[in-house]
Write a structure and sequence with these properties.
Shape: elongated
Distance between the termini: 106 Å
Radius of gyration: 31 Å
Number of strands: 35
Number of helices: 19
Largest sheet: 8 strands, parallel, barrel
Low-confidence stretches: 741-745
Mean pLDDT: 95
């Protein structure tokens, strides 16, 4: 009998198993038909004896060690009475016996179609195949592991379930795909694991799983087996309503976004090192605040797993895993679910532009450039110290597109804000001469990234309708938010970085000099309809010595608050959706730091609390009147009444909504000078009702008195046939509601 076993064993494969170099261990391990009988083999270094039994414990047979102290056991059995699966009883000593189902008696769970679609870059649910997935196969519970490592010589699963011994669970490669897989019975949710990769150069790497759904809390960095299909969602109505929407619908809806860093919005005072709230704990706190303040959306910075707190989540090592800093994947599902039940949309910051060099992560994953471009002129950011994805490789393209869909579909997220889009579009971004490589046409445009964006946005719109994809794009690239069929990139919205830079430069000026820089205030309307914009005052503007928003403002203590109220009022009146970073709604004086909580104690001071009340009033105004948002991308939605009064630094404009009623007139004074009997042109005759003044005493203003309503007079002003007269408060925004139907009646 042992003769037949020796006939069956391939000596080359036998040696490769012992040396940890076999990339198809199922060929030699497990149960195999041979002639008129069957061969059992198992490799367990250090074992004294190994027995095979049926799943019910019958038909016990002992395997023999093929070579002394090799750990390789086998036996030939005449006849074919054994079936898969079966159990191995592994005896290491008299009282140390491991009872396990043999991992090498299960078929692959990844089909040829899966591999084909992945190689084409079009397997949009590849996250259900690659990674670690608890499942039951042939009645056996365990975890299915699969990883893409085409340049590897061999790959093993190691973890706390096999004493991190790479000899025990070598994986099988499938066809020529570079995908390795293995089902390991008995491995349960919560198990900690990595992949040990033997490179072509003989180096052994310990890598976390690129498709892992959970990770250890830093500084530990192993992957953790997680179950994503158990959570019971309560947002069915929300999701059904979302599916009815399209990009045109989203353009016409209000979006007042509160940008949040979860770890520093609020911290616990419980003496713990980090003071982090769990996703479940912070959800009601944040939802209560958002609801009270009137925000429609929350945007979360850096949720995907990352090693360094100071990166704020923008140097990602676990693209498919919510960070463990705040809990488990189920906890984050609860967070999103809770927000939906409170009527709040959730946007995530998403980073497909680059990834860090951490040895356990994506960098040189299988010993060679895999996720990154192999040419450093394409594959590295020299000034950021990070790698750039190889967008032209289909499997990498698939990794990124499926990752976006993963958050939108698995976690019910309502939108993604794509970080650093400009760095992806331009091959010379952040690089000096000689540090970048032109495209196939000799230009600096990254044609691979362009194709990725178009492919990505088409699929997001098709497979996750009603979700928004927002580009942080800082250049004048044309058609960022134009549909793909019109040769655009297909994003839903774009951050208006040009407006932000010009406007903040304007606001930082002493009011005396603003008259000489009036174009910084008005120029944005020259391109306001070139894209579908979001007006942003983001976290990037209140860090690294840039000062907080209130500290950017010139003047005395009171002037700073008045300037900031004026800035926010103008921002809300300007066409485009809105985003404000946390802490700026109550005028935090210190720059933001991820290491500490916001300075909530400032709300004990009158001016800070009044600023918060003012931002709340702006949100209420914004959501109440569709003139503030429904025609953001339509020229009929905005009209200057006066934009040339640079001497007084005053502008006025009209916002128009869906009907002839509830039209709004904004009058903005950017100087600390009060103008009594100030006259401004208006679009028509009728009654104008004041609905907001940033100078109101309840907001911390001087309280310049004006009538609640004023009738337009047929007095020409600012080139208009009608005008109104008022006392214009210093450093202020005043908003009037008017109705075209008034005149018709």
């Amino acid at each position: 009998m042992q003769e037949k076993l020796e006939q069956w064993i391939n000596k080359v494969e036998f040696n490769e198993i012992l040396e940890g170099k076999h990339n198809a261990p199922h060929n030699i391990l497990g149960l195999h038909d041979f002639g008129s009988g069957q061969v059992f083999t198992a490799y367990r270094p250090g074992a004294e004896k190994i027995f095979v039994v049926d799943m019910d414990g019958r038909n016990r047979i002992e395997l023999e060690e093929v070579e002394e102290n090799s750990g390789f056991f086998g036996i030939y059995v005449e006849g074919k009475k054994y079936k898969k699966p079966y159990r191995l009883l592994i005896q290491y000593s008299y009282d140390d016996i491991v009872d396990m189902v043999d991992p090498y008696c299960f078929d692959p769970q990844i089909s040829s179609d899966d591999l084909y679609l992945f190689a084409e870059g079009k397997h949009y649910q590849i996250y259900d195949k690659l990674g670690a997935h608890p499942m039951t196969i042939n009645g056996v519970q365990g975890t299915y592991f699969a990883v893409w490592a085409p340049n590897a010589r061999a790959v093993s699963v190691v973890g706390n379930f096999n004493v991190w011994d790479s000899r025990l669970n070598p994986m099988r490669t499938l066809q020529v795909s570079g995908v390795y897989e293995l089902f390991i019975p008995g491995v349960q949710e919560g198990a900690i694991y990595k992949y040990q990769i033997l490179t072509r150069n003989g180096e052994r790497l310990m890598k976390s799983d690129p498709y892992a759904n959970c990770a250890e809390l830093r500084p530990n960095n192993a992957s953790v087996v997680a179950e994503l299909n158990r959570y019971q969602w309560h947002d069915d109505a929300w999701m059904k309503e979302r599916e009815k929407k399209n990009r045109q619908t989203l353009h016409k809806e209000p979006m007042s976004i509160y940008e949040v860093h979860l770890g520093s919005w609020h911290k616990k005072n419980d003496g713990t090192e980090d003071g982090f709230y769990n996703y479940r704990e912070i959800a009601p706190m944040l939802a209560d605040y958002l609801t009270d303040m009137g925000y429609t959306h929350v945007e979360l910075m850096g949720i995907a797993e990352h090693p360094f707190d100071g990166s704020w989540g923008y140097q990602v090592t676990g693209y498919y895993a919510p960070t463990r800093r705040y809990g488990t994947p189920e906890d984050f599902m609860y967070f999103v679910d809770y927000m939906h039940q409170r009527g709040i949309h959730v946007i995530l910051d998403w980073v497909p532009a680059h990834f860090p060099r951490d040895a356990y992560g994506l960098a040189r994953f299988d010993g060679q450039p895999l996720y990154e471009h192999p040419d450093p002129r394409r594959g590295e950011h020299p000034h950021w110290g990070t790698y750039i994805f190889n967008y032209g490789r289909h499997e990498v393209e698939n990794f990124l597109i499926a990752n976006g869909l993963f958050w939108l579909k698995k976690f019910h997220v309502d939108g993604l804000r794509v970080d650093a889009v400009a760095s992806m579009l331009y091959l010379d971004y952040g690089k000096n001469d000689g540090e970048w490589l032109p495209n196939e046409h000799g230009g600096k445009e990254n044609t691979d990234a362009i194709r990725l964006f178009r492919h990505m946005n088409e699929q997001f719109e098709k497979q996750a309708p009603g979700t928004a994809v927002i580009a942080e794009e800082s250049t004048a690239w044309a058609g960022v938010t134009a549909p793909v069929e019109l040769s655009g990139l297909g994003f839903t919205f774009k951050w208006n970085m040009g407006w932000m830079n010009d406007f903040l430069e304007y606001m930082k000026l002493d009011p005396y000099f603003r008259s000489y820089n009036h174009n910084k205030l008005t120029f944005s309307m020259q391109y306001a309809y070139s894209e579908n914009f979001i007006q942003v005052l983001s976290h990037d503007e209140v860090v690294h010595g840039k000062c907080s928003m209130i500290e950017k403002m010139p003047g005395t203590y009171e002037d700073k608050f008045a300037n900031l109220r004026t800035a926010y009022g103008f921002m809300y009146g300007h066409p485009g959706k809105k985003l404000l970073f946390m802490g700026q709604e109550f005028a935090q004086f210190r720059e933001w730091s991820e290491e500490r909580s916001l300075d909530w104690n400032l709300l004990d001071y009158e001016m800070h609390n009044k600023m918060r009340q003012y931002v709340k009033a702006l949100n209420e105004l914004y959501c109440k009147y569709d003139a503030m948002y429904i025609n953001d991308n339509n020229t009929m939605g905005f009209e200057w009444m006066s934009c040339d009064n640079s001497d007084m630094s005053v502008v006025s404009f009209v916002r128009r909504g869906s009907t002839l009623t509830d039209q709004l007139l904004f009058i903005c004074n950017f100087t600390p000078v009060r103008y009594d009997e100030f006259r401004t042109g208006v679009p028509c005759a009728g009654k104008y009702t004041r609905i907001l003044s940033s100078d109101d005493k309840k907001f911390g203003g001087t309280g310049v008195r004006n009538s609640k309503t004023v009738n337009a007079e047929e007095v020409e002003c600012d080139g208009k046939d009608y005008s109104i007269e008022m006392n214009l408060p210093p450093l202020s925004v005043t908003v009037y509601r008017f109705d075209f139907k008034e005149e018709e009646e």
